[in-house]
Structure formats: C-alpha cells, structure tokens
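Subgroup meeting minutes
Present: P.N., E.W., G.H.
Scribe: E.W.

1. P.N. recapped why we're keeping a running log of single-chain structure predictions: easier to compare across weeks, and new members can see raw inputs and outputs side by side.
2. G.H. added today's entry (83 aa).
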Amino acid sequence: MQPWALVCPTSRGIGLEVARQLLTRTKLPIVATARKDLDKAREGILEGLENVEEDRVKVVKVDVLGSVRPMIPSRAPSEHTAR
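Output recorded in log:
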C-alpha cells in the first residue's frame, strides 16, 4: 500500500499550511478534510502553488462535532440531582 497523508481540518490555519507544505515538499497523496464547502477548501490548499499535481489532493467532508453534539448535555448536571 502506498503511503498517504491525512490532514484534518484544512479549511484554514495550521491544517491548511500543513497540507500545502506536504504538497510542495513530498510526493504523498493528501486526504484533506473540511466541514463544508469542499471545493473552496481544495482551492485554498492549491492557491499559488506551482508544479504541484492537483490530483494528489482529495478533500472529504468530515464534521466530528456534528455527531458529538447530541451526546453533550445541554446543561451541566446539578449537584442536587437525585441519585
């Protein structure tokens, strides 16, 4: 199996820059994640990069908080909660 890199998230900040550096400094395929607007995320990763094979970047939708929110209580339990 060929090695590849997973960068999560890549919409902005450190993840965006890590994906860009991996593209310019390695030959690894990059799997990048974003919560929304995958095309915009991909464009941001590739913006201004020269001599990079654009097909090395795949952006997939991942929303970790979307699946966790229902499990988070709406309020903290009171210390007076019946046991």
